């Protein structure tokens, strides 16, 4: 599996393509592309590299991670869209405040299926493990790929920081529990691709993250 990242919108949100190298199928995770220029960047990369979009995945449904959901579904019709059921209220609340955050042209999209902790997600021959990591958002999940020691982590763990917990549905103690039991149990060499900022590793955060020590 190859991970390709893009940074979109005014929140500098990281959108990821997870590419199955054998089949060239890919999943789009947390599409934050809002402007036509941002949308074109994502579409052009996929088309230029002859990729086939097979899944749309959201780690959680805060506005900066879902701005491009409907664009993806319009551009690649029939793509399954998966989200944890506990974050459906988070997703459905976005239209009520999108304009206030500077996104008046936000188009809501509804999931076609749900992510369940412990159930695998497949992209071609690639299998991802879904891990339930609430605390930043009620239905937050991360995607773990053991063969490449990779986590697509959303807004749970950042380089020397953690996700904020002052938004509706957030809980600091719950987030720390999620990090301890779902991320810190992974090998130190595991790379974490977060929803904002640079990639890090479990080992680096275990030893240097002030929120965990």
From TrEMBL:
Domain Metallo-beta-lactamase, first and last residues per copy: 12-196
SMART domains with a match to the protein in the record: Lactamase_B
Keywords, comma-separated and alphabetical: Hydrolase, Metal-binding, Zinc
Cofactor(s) essential for the protein: Zn(2+)
SUPFAM superfamilies: Metallo-hydrolase/oxidoreductase
Keyword Zinc: yes
Name of the protein in question: MBL fold metallo-hydrolase
